[in-house]
Automatic annotation (TrEMBL):
The keyword Secreted does not apply. GO terms for molecular function: lyase activity. Residues 702-736 form the Exo-oligoalginate lyase C-terminal domain. This is Alginate lyase family protein. It comes from the Bacteria. It comes from Luteimonas salinilitoris.
Amino acid sequence: MRGAVLLAAALLAADGADGAVGPSRAAQAGASASAVASDVLAPVLVSAPEWQRMREEGKRYPLFAGEQARVARSVRAAMAEGVVVPQPKDPGGGYTHEQHKRNYLVIQGAGTLYRLTGDRAYADFARDLLLAYARLYPTLGPHPAGRGQIPGRLFWQTLNDSVWLVHAIQGYDAIRETLDPRDRRRVDALFRRAARFLSDETPENFNRIHNHATWAVAGVGMTGYVLRDREMVEKALLGLSRDGEAGFLKQIDDLFSPDGYYEEGPYYQRYALAPFVIFANAIARNEPQRKIFAHKDGVLLKAVDALIQSSYAGYFFPINDAMLDKGLDTAELVAAIAIVYARSGDDRLLSIAQRQGRTVLTPEGLGVAEALAAGRAEPYRFRSMMLRDGAEGNGGGLAILREGGEDGQALVMKNTSQGMGHGHFDRLNWLFYDNGQRVVTDYGAARFLNVEAKSGGTYLPENSSWAKQTIAHNTLVVDERSHFDGDWKRGEAHAPTPLLFDVADGVQIVSARMAGAYDGVAFTRTQALVAHPELPFPVVVDLLRVDGAGPARYDLPLHFNGHVMTVGFEASRNIEERPVLGEANGYQHLWVDADSEASDRTRSLTWLLDGRFYTYRFGASAPTRALLVESGANDPEFNLRREPALVRRMDGRTDAAFFSVLEPHGAYDGTAETVHGADSRIRGVVHVRGEDADVIVLTLASGAILALAVADDADAGRAHRVAADGRTYAWTGAYARFDARAGDDGSNRPRTEEMP
C-alpha cells in the first residue's frame, strides 16, 4: 500500500513541480478533488485518527489544553494582523527575519488548530500564508544580508530557511487535503522549490555532517513524505548521492557518541535534537520497518538523557559556542521529551515536562499530558557520569561529578574533542556549580542572539578574539598561545585520553591526559570531589601536571563568579591605571588589577556568591605569580561581560605541577544580617611528588588529615608509595584516599580500611 501511495503521489507531484501549470495539467488537476485518492492527501506526519483522538481527548488534560490555548492566542493575533509576508532584507533580529519566523510558527499552529477544532478559518489562514510564500519564493535570489558563502532565500543563512521548512511542512500536512487542486499545486510547488534549494542547489550544506545539515535533511525528508516523493526522502536519509556517505543516517552515526553525547556540546545538542527526533518520528510513522529509534543502539533516545544530564539548575553547561540562558525549558527539548517518552515510557521524563510547563500538540504531547494528569511523574535523578565523545566513543568525554542533589555540587571536567567549528580551545577545562549557582565559570559564546544592534545577532568578533581562546577558560596556556594555535581543524585530530573515572563513597575522581595541543607538551589533569565529616560541603581537589619540551611560560587561569572577600597573598594593586595582560590570543582583553611576586608558598583567594563563601587554595611545584584580572579590555563596542579571573603564572620551567583545593563554606544572610562559617575549615594544603604518583594533603582546622593520592597510570594492580610531610602513603591502584584524626600516629592506610 505504501508503495502505491508514493507512486500515485509522485505522478501527482510531477504536475506543476516547477510552479508552471499548463492548460492540460490544469484541466486534469481541476477535474475533481475526489479524483485524487484520499490516502494521497491524508496527513502523514500525524494521522487523521490521531488528530481525531487529540480533538476529542485533549481538553481533558490541563497541560495539553493549556498549550492549545497558548497556540490559539498566538495564531489569532496573527490572523487579526492579516497575511504579512515581507520581502526579505534584514539579518537576524531584524523585522523581516522575525516576521518570517513568526509566520512559520503560525503556519504550523494554524494547521494544528484546524485539526484540533475543525474551524476552517485556521486552515484558510495557513493556506493564505502559504500562497503568499508561493508568490514570493520564485522571485527570491540570495538574501541581501546573506551570511557566509551560502545565504538563504527567506533568511540570511540557509539554516533558518531549513527551520522554516521543518515547521511549515508540518502545518501544510495538516491542511493539504483542504486545498482546492489549483492552490494545492501552487503550494506543493513552493515546498518543492524550497526543498530543492536546500538540497540539490546547496550540496555543500546538505551533505555536511553538522547541525545546519540536520535541519536541512529533516525539512527535505518530511517534505518528501508529505508530497509522497520517494526520491526526496532517500536524499534526506542517505545524502544527495544516496550512497549513505551523507544524510540523516550518517549524521546520527557520526555526530552522536554511543552514550548520546553530541559532538558540538550541549548547547548545540539542544538545537539539533529537534530535527533529529521530529524527523525520526516522521520516519517511524511512514517507514516503521526502518526502526529508526533503534538505530545505533537507540542513540537518539540516549541523547535526550545525555542532554538533560548536561545541565545544572535548569541550564545547560555552557560548553563551546553556548549561550548561558538556554536550558531545560527550551522548545526543542519540549518536543524531544514528548517523542522520547512515547518511545521509552520513562516516567522520569515527566518531571522534566512538569518543570517545562508545556508540551506539544501532537499524539506524543497528549501522551505526556495524560501521564502527568495520572500522577505518573517520577523525579529525574541527576547523577555522576562519564559521557563518551566521538562516533565510536573514543574521542574523550565529558565527566560530570555530582553530590548533594540537583542543586548541590557539580564538577564538570571537559575532556571532549574539538566540537568542530563551534568548539573552543579548552582541553581539560572545568566548571563547578554549587548552591544553584555557577561558581567556576565558562564564558560560553560572545554573542547576543538575534539582537540586531550587536552584529545582527550573530557571533561577535570577540567570540574569536576572546571566548574561543584558551586564556578565557580554566585550563593550561603555554607561552600565551591557545591550544592548536587557534586552528579548530588541527584540534579535530587530537582528543584527550581518559585515564580514570570512578565514583565511590566520599570521593569521586576523574583524570585525563592531553597531548598535541602544543608541540612537545603534554599535560595531565586529575580532579576529585571529596567529602569529609568536618567539611560542610565537598571540596574540589585539582592537580595539573605538565611535561614540557623546554623552558616555557605556563599560565593557569581560574574564572570565578562572585565578589572577592579576601586576597590571601601580597600583591600590588593597579589603582590609577589598568594595564592589559597581553597583546593577542585573548590576553588583549584582560585588564590586570593586581599582581604578586613569584612565590612557592600556597596562597588563597576567597569570594562570596549568593550567600556562600568559596576559598581557593593554590600552589605549584615552582614559584608562581598570581594575577587578578578582569575581561573587557580592548573592547570599544562594549561587547564583553566584565568577569573576574585569577591567573597563576610560572616562567622558565619545562615540567611543572599546579595543585589547588576549592572549598565552599559558611553562609551570609543580608536580610537577617548574619554571617557564620566565613573562615575556611582547611588549615593547609601540601603537594608531594613521588616516583610515579602525587599526593595532595589537606590539614583541617581540627588537625585532621585528608589526603588524596593519585598514580601516573590507572593500573589496578600496581603498588605505589609516597612519603609526604612525615607520613608514608602506600596503596595499590590508580588512586587512594587517606584519613587520619588529629594526633594519629602517622601510619596511613587507605580510607577503605578503618583508621585508628
